[in-house]
Amino acid sequence: MKPLYSDDLAAAICERLASGETLTSICRAEGMPAPRTVREWSRDNSEFGKAYRQAMESGCHALLDETLDIADNKNEPADSRKLRIWARHELAARKRPDLFGKMVKMEHTGADGGPMKHESTVTLDPGEAYRRLLNPDA
Fold first, then answer.
1. Which residue among 22, 42, 87, 90 has the highest number of C-beta atoms inside a 10 angstrom radius?
2. Is the dihedral of CA 125, 129, 135, 138 positive or negative?
3. Nearest Cα to 86, choosing from 66, 108, 58?
4. Which phi and psi (to 5°) does residue 121 adopt?
5. How far apart are CA 46 and CA 52, in angstroms?
6. Where is this region: Disordered (predicted)?
7. What CATH number labels 7-101?
8. Residue 85: closest CA among 101, 69, 98, 74
9. DSSP per residue over 26-67, as a string?
10. Over the stretch 22-69, which tens digit does the pLDDT of each residue have?
């Protein structure tokens, strides 16, 4: 039987997410719901959904903060450190691609940030317009 939603359980999950722990590892603990259940809660409960998204973002920051400690640990082989740092960067990029991803988003806007204005003018004499109307493939 899956645990029922409670504010205390939701807060505990968010606290652990914010520290950088993965949802999968949190949900392995005794008395915790399945990851799918937590995701459903975040979708169906707007208050928890907002807290969940903020916790995920904080968790990404925590993961990235760990990378400096890993990089500075000279007792670990360089290849191992590189892999651990890469894994944290990838996880953060996949959890929050809008903040930590590698894709650059470019938007074009019109005057004062408004929509772009597109205008085109086609001039046809009446005979040509009538011919195209009768035979559009010509």
1. 42
2. positive
3. 66
4. -130, 130
5. 10
6. 107-138
7. 1.10.10.60
8. 69
9. HHTSTTPPPHHHHHHHHHH-HHHHHHHHHHHHHHHHHHHHHH
10. 999 999 999 999 999 999 999 999 999 999 999 999 999 999 999 999
Instruction: Provide the CB-side half-sphere exposure for 107 (13 A, CA).
Output: 7
Cα distance between residue 38 and residue 27, in whole Å: 9
For residues 64 and 92, is the Cβ–Cβ distance under 8 A? yes
List of residues 6+ apart from 47 with CB closer than 8 A: none
For the record, the structure tokens of 80 come out as 């191992």
pLDDT, residue 108, reads 81
Structure letter (DSSP) for residue 2: P
Q: Is the pLDDT reported for residue 72 higher than 90?
A: yes
Contact, 111 vs 105, CB < 8 A?
no
Residues whose CB is less than 8 angstroms from the CB of residue 34 and which lie 6 or more positions away in sequence, other chains included: 2, 27
Residue 14: both structure tokens together: 């968010």
- Model pLDDT for residues 88-123, shown as the tens digit of each residue: 999 999 888 888 888 767 778 888 888 888 888 878
* pLDDT in the model for residue 1: 59
